[in-house]
# Entry
Amino acid sequence: MATDIARGNPTERAFVTPEGVDLRLNIGDAGQRAAAFLLDASIIIGVLIALSLVLALTGVGAVGAAGKAGVEVIAVLWLAAFFFLRNFYFTAFELSAAAATPGKRMMGLRVAARDGGRLKAEAIFTRNAMRELEVFLPLSIMGARAAEGGVDAWIYVLSFAWAGIFVFFPLFNKDRLRVGDLVGGTWVVRTPRRKLTRDMADDGAGRRAIYDFTTAQLDAYGAKELHVLETILRDSDRKTLRDVAERISGKIGWTRDPHETDRAFLSAYYAALRERLEQKLLMGVRRRDKHDV
# Structure
């Protein structure tokens, strides 16, 4: 789970995983999230424009033959496509391994579970279902009234006030959460751009002859835990190294030598786990975390 804001960095949060590891994360700021949404909205609008052109070009003959009924069919197809895009575009991309839409990926953001656990499908569905209430409902009301012959001034005021409350809601909480994030138990964090370094793997590889981990012991964790372990080794905090070494050895059933150091054990396990994950990746198997079977 997340704790208070870290000192000296207003966007950094202490993020404690279910294993008890304190993994520092940086939340996405309001500007990044707004830019990501505008990029995604531009993609959706672009798709709708392309669809409109296709329907216009291919539907000319049908409209001429069917008259008003042909126009209604094209309108229904366009509305169905718009409904599908606005409801499933965000959900589909955030359910992927990247947990991010194209806009979020371009801005270096991804969705994560606030409790430190695995990002669940129901959380993604919930956070995106709320967007219909936050943005599209007031716009739909205005559109429907306009189609009926005009929009009263008070409808404009109420609709914009409704949308404004939800749109600007992230500015009034420290974690920049949308209402959908609050309900779904998620938040948007910055994706670490730092890649795993080969020298760290090489450091652990020198100890592999001493540590003969079995396949089952290595399959206890996935790519997410590998990244966490890299961060822990890089920070080299003694207490954290000791705690994590005890947790890993207990989970995989490894009997530790009383003379070995925590860092030596973790470095060896890091190198072995990385090698195992890379081998599986070559066979087309990508294990995202320990829950991914």
In short: Residues 198-282 form one domain. The longest strand covers residues 12-16. Residues 1-8, 194-198 have pLDDT under 50 and may be disordered. The chain has two domains: 2-190, 198-282.
